[in-house]
Amino acid sequence: MERRLDDYNLTDDAEKELWSECLFIFDSSALLNFYSYSKRTMDDIFEKIIKPAENRLWIPNQVEYEYLCKREVSIKKPINLYKELINNHIKSIGNQLKDLKNRTKKSEIHPHIDSEIFEEFEENFLSFKETLQKEIELKISDIKKLVEEDPVLDILSTYFKVGSTYSFSNIMEVVTQGELRYRLKIPPGYKDKEEKIGIQVFGDLIIWNQIIDYAVKTRKNIIFITDDKKEDWWVLGKNNSIIAPREELIKEIRDKADIKFWMYTSIQFFESANKIQNANIQNNSLNEIEAKSDYVSTGGRLYKEGLIDIVWIEDLLDLKPVNPCAAIERSWVYWVEERITEIAKHNNQPYFQSFNFYEFKDFLASLDFKASLIKNIQALREIYRISTTYDLCRENVGRAIDLATAIIIGLSEFEPKPPIYHEE
After folding, report:
1. Which range has highest mean pLDDT (55-69, 79-93, 125-139, 405-419)?
2. Residue 423 belongs to some domain of the structure
């Protein structure tokens, strides 16, 4: 009985023993996250984790398949961030400059600013924009080259062993098994039934079966590293915090292969490497890995619950050391700003000036503006709720909620009243 309890509770001593002789198996979610880390962090991981563990690294064939399918998309993901600099940031500055000129150009009324003051700034701004555009084109070109010269792929090809592929008949056996398991919500993978189609619905279960097969063959304990944080892998606590691997997984692999099994997210794994093996991964690297993990976890959950727009997901997945609340709030502001710019341009109105939501109600409806705002207010309230440690951002998120509510009221049949959002 004592041995069985130890299997489900990883004490410090048990963790040290597990690390001393186990295999390290990475999921595709953890491998693909390598592309989001800076070169400094990847160098840190390579020198202090990958190279020392060279003979203990293994991935299932299904993980290799999923990684290769999504590799190019992951490499090119930062391209959207660079395009955002021009399409959102620079465009916003240009629009605000035009707005400022329009508001101050009439000499007979206040406020009035001499137009010559703007001319020098406009010339410098145009030069800056051209320089930035060239730099962005170089960055995008470098990113595209990574598809052919990929250091992450080189690391995996050199240091990771890959398991055998399953035949089609093997896969169909997993599918048959999976239909019963998923109906009874037996982990892993049953949450994928809501998101995927075809055989890929059973991708996690194929990975799990291949891990068990390898454990039976090698009889070595296993540490599995995954950034898939759904309930079909983990016991989750309040606010979807990770508590431990699902007990069913620990029992199944123990009964079939007579080995010990544990799971970590990427940040848990690298922190444990520092604690147990004195890996000495730098704090800056750990902070970056943790920030990435937070974006994926928070953004993914809200998106799957229908509370967040896809543009926010791109921000959450791609932005680096900024807290997730600020990333969401900033993305939302850009989104609203773009819509208002379109509306003002459509109606020949100066940017953000003399804006009348009743007058533009039909145009707004055609953009499904109201429905989007209602959904985004729900997401903002969720971010407001979890942002207790981000006081500076919390105020801005509250303002964004107020603004969105005001817009919706302006689209309604009754007179608008200035809303104030308070979290009880």
Report:
1. 55-69
2. no
Q: Could you read off the pLDDT of 180-214 as tens digits, one per residue?
A: 999 999 999 999 987 788 899 999 999 999 999 99
Confidence band of 154 (pLDDT split at 50, 70, 90): very high
Residue 6, pLDDT score: 63
Is the domain of 253 the same as that of 291? no
* Residues whose CB is less than 8 angstroms from the CB of residue 326 and which lie 6 or more positions away in sequence, other chains included: 390, 393, 396
Are 389 and 295 part of one and the same domain? yes
Instruction: Evaluate whether residue 202 is within a structural domain.
Output: yes
How far is the C-alpha of 228 from the C-alpha of 304, rounded, in Å? 13
Instruction: Clarify whether residues 274 and 341 are in a common domain.
Output: no
Backbone angles phi, psi at 107, to 5 degrees: -75, -20
For residues 321 and 269, state if they share a domain.
Answer: no
Domain boundary among 256, 281, 306: 281
238 in the same domain as 156: yes
- Residues 368, 372, 375: CA angle, nearest 5 degrees: 150
Mean pLDDT of 326-344: 47
Kindly state whether residues 277 and 300 are assigned to the same domain: no
Supply the pLDDT for residue 207. Answer: 97
Which residues form the domain of 191?
2-73+150-281
**Of residues 136 and 93, which shows the higher confidence score?**
136
pLDDT digits (tens, 9 = 90+) for 155-168: 999 999 999 999 99
**Domain contains 421:** no
Query: Does residue 293 belong to any structural domain of this protein?
Result: yes
Distance CA 148, CA 73 (A): 13
Q: Taking all residues of the chain, what is their mean pLDDT, rounded to a whole number?
A: 75
CA angle 211, 231, 310 (to 5 degrees): 105
Give φ, ψ of 57 to 5 degrees.
-100, 130
Domain boundary among 232, 265, 281: 281
Reported pTM? 0.67
CB atoms within 10 A of CB 133: 14
Residues 324 and 271 in one domain: no
Integer CA distances (angstroms), 139 to 82, 87, 132, 142, in order: 8, 16, 10, 5
Whether 259 and 386 map to the same domain: the answer is no
